[in-house]
Amino acid sequence: MPLPISLTDLQIDEVLRYMGTPPDRAEPAIRKLAEGCARELLGVVRPRWAARTFELTPEEGGVRLSSGLLLPGEDLKRHLAGCRRAVLFCATLSAQADALIRRAESGDMLRALALDSCATAAVEQLCDQIELELQRQFPGCFFPFRYSPGYGDLPLTLQSSLLALLDAPRQVGLCASASHILTPRKSVTAILGVADHPIQASVRSCLGCPAHDGCQYRKSGGHCGIS
Amino acid sequence: MEFLELLKTGRPVLLDGGMGTMLQARGLPVGAAPETAALEHPEWLREIHSAYLDAGSQIVYANTFGANREKLAHCGRTVAEVVPAAVSVAREAARGRGLVALDVGPIGQLLEPTGTLEFEQAVDIFAEVVEAGAAAGADLIAIETMTDLQEARAALLAAREHSSLPVLVTMTYEATGRTFLGCSPACAALTLEGLGADAIGVNCSLGPREMPPLVEELLRWTTLPIVLKPNAGLPHPDGSGYDISPEEFAHSLAALADLGVQVFGGCCGTTPEYIALLRRELEGRTVRRVTRTVPAAVCSGTQAVPIDRVRVIGERINPTGKKLMKEALRRGDVDYMLNQALAQTEAGADILDVNVGLPEIDEADMMVRTVKALQGVTDAPLQLDSTDPKVLERALRVYCGKAIVNSVNGEAESLSAILPLVKKYGAAVVGLTLDQGGIPKSAEARMEVARRILERALALGIRREDVYIDCLTLTVSAEQEGAAQTLTALRRVKEELGLKTVLGVSNISFGLPARPLVNQNFLTMAMAAGLDLPILNPNVDTMMAAVRCYHLLTNVDRDAREFIAAYGNAAVSTSISGGGAAPAASASGGGRGLAEVVEAGLKGEAAAAARALLETREPMDVVDHVLIPALDKVGADFEQNRVFLPQLIQSAGAAQAAFEVIRESLAQRNGGSVSRGTVVLATVKGDIHDIGKNIVKVLLENYGYTVVDLGKDVDPSAVVEAVRRHAAPLVGLSALMTTTLKSMAETISMLHDAGLTCQIMVGGAVLTPDYARQIQADFYARDAKESVDIAKRVIG
């Protein structure tokens, strides 16, 4: 089991963005609500993660992990160009996050929205910390940004195979539903490429954003301001 | 010797150790399904089983941990191929040397409410495994590595209904003493023993060093033999194995026989070497015999509530005399019940009574939906309340935990219909002291009925601790001598029969003035007479105050902590005011107008502002000329980025509070409804991201539309059925994942095929206007605000 990671603080501006409010125009009461919900959420979640390193072989139609699993599609293959290895990891905030949001939803939708946004921010921060931890384990190496099923042409149908490689149901209590949704909901699977030589810098953009297609800013033709 | 006989010897019983790592050592690739070994490498399994039998295992687990149809589908195999092959090879190895357990692990998908798998589907998946295993000659069933008590229940129920084999059930816990899904050993013990397990315990989880607290908790809550099958300690951070040597494993695990553990084995990281040493350590040891008496208690999947003090049962989820709840039931709206539940637990209810009986609805279906929804939002155990045994059985099946059944009475028919259900599902039961002759007048006659109920319950194997007697409250204005008889009977049930007692107290004051005074005093008298479980409205402060005072004065509330926490800062009024219960309308000083309150999103002031307005204006006038224009203004500001989603929801919340007042006022004079028309909403099959749909619901409701909310993961046919039944002119469907868009398309084409004339709007993260057209939706709603615009266009 990897080292436990605890979340102590959430970036409230990020939470406000997920709530559909530009941080600089958020009313004090909304900011306060977001802060309160962040504390409440962090008080109940039990972040867990699992990771495993594989050798990579690019081939026709995708890139193959040394376990034998083919990760299909061109986008990930391009993304991992120059990486001989990759770390597959999963992270979850635990079912307690879902329960807290569910409880709020039946009474106060604004709190539910705030809690849901806090949880989205929290799982991203959890992944950021995992990524740092993993980077520490590969000194002198270079890393493109983490990549998840659903980005580009990497299919969501891959989720249960990825979870099986990590023994995730048993190790961290993370499963995929019949329609390939991760449950508990506030969870992520991701692939972090590891290159021994410098690679072309790839910037995390809307493509790698958890809000990508559902983004309020993109829907209205704008951008959140984070590159 | 058979498994149950082995248990009866009182001597330690030895299971086997890990399977996965043994298979990988022989060449099974990482991530591959271990279950295929039965077909592709039976010789591996023969070797492994034999090695464990040589080491001293009396029972080996067949290699069927993940052999259910959901997991096997990933490797193109079926249960009918894998299970018989795996059981046969284990039986060959164990012939004359030991027993074979059919190993049943988790399905690999989470059940509702965290996941989407339905309880009965899970039972069905397990039933297939159980039948195949029993037919192949397994000697017992070992359900293991469960983290969700509901999934363990599904497997156990399948084992009991589809075989006659003994069953042991073990769950896996974290260092916190809970499973990933929050189940404690206490909840597992109360529930699984009730449902008929033969032995229960812990597997996987942690190492033997972490077992004692889990064992101690199990011992407090079950009389069953305890099973431990832990890992070889904690895994090394680098994944290179586990941190406990075979010697230490054997030594520290065997020592737990002194606590009373009887069945031993190993899980991840353990090998025949561990088991051989464990056998040596167990030799000559006896299992400590402790007389265990499990106190009266009920539980949910996450919270155990011992009846060791007065526990309040909240009575509010019951349509009797509640127009709004009746309306909600007719609409199939479970949110009403969820709000009632949360308000009651916040006020101090320990257990919630659930009654959804209404002549014109399908009570069983509604009960199942309500119980499922309630256990998604509250940890409080439930009391399932119906007069129909069929409704009770459906509810008991899906209820995760140990419920209370309300109720059985002394009539022969009731006893024979209800008590077997109580036994089968391991519930507690309320016994009403009445029979075909009605409610006996004298305390002695009620005692007689109580004795009859108890006798029948005991004869069926129901524990004495699980029978709660209700001596029945009679209205004191009609039969003044009745109150004393009730209290006498209650005291005698408690003292002479030693049973827990339950009593609905509010009826006592019917037809009298100052009812709260009468209720509170009767409650206090009843508690003094030995009442354990008052059924009452916890939102009435004086009732909860009586309970808190009772706990203070009987030294249950040590150091007055709870009392001070509740009243330390409160100005308590002890007077009874002349008027009704409703707070005065001028709470806000009559300051702000309703429009202003809604625009500012001031939920707390909205009800008072609406009441003030209703004094001079007609309800529909308030809706059309105050509420809707205010919401429109906020909506327009939202569209122009002057306000954002949180403010939109805040305004909707304020409008909702106002609407509740208006609805009540209309319901009271039976003057029709506020509804402008019905919209059916659903998050499509397979999708569980429903926060967007819920925001849409709030907005639509606050524009006066009646929303039939079917929830998330909704079957296409359920949408069709709801549109037809409610003759809804508009349907809203949401999906958040690309993988569930196809169920949206399916739902739409099914609506079209059914020839329904409704219009369809769709929304959700991955949708685009183009795709909406392509799947033949009539409208694409970019956000919640736009869904209201669409409703206005379609319905008006």
Written description of the protein model:
The complex is a heterodimer of chains A (227) and B (796). With 227 residues, chain A is of the alpha+beta class. Chain A is built from eight helices and seven strands, in the order H-H-E-E-E-H-E-H-H-H-H-E-E-E-H. Chain A has a five-stranded antiparallel beta sheet with strand order 3-2-1-4-7, with helices on both faces. In chain A, a hairpin with a 4-residue loop joins strand 2 and strand 3. The relative contact order of chain A is 0.17. Chains A and B meet through helix 4, helix 5, helix 6 and strand 5 of A and helix 14, helix 15, helix 26 and helix 27 of B.
Shape by Cα distribution of chain A: globular
- Label the structural class of chain B: alpha/beta
Biggest sheet features of chain B: 8 strands, parallel
Got a strand count of chain A? 7
Taking Cα atoms only, what radius of gyration of chain A do you get, to the nearest Å? 18 Å
Unreliable parts of chain A:
none
What distance separates the N and C termini of chain A? 33 Å
> Roughly how many Å is the radius of gyration of chain B?
30 Å
How would you describe the oligomerization state of the chains in this entry? Answer: heterodimer
Helix coverage percent of chain A: 25-40%
Physical arrangement of strands within the biggest beta sheet of chain A: 3-2-1-4-7
What are the segments of chain B in which pLDDT stays under 50 over at least 5 consecutive residues? 578-590
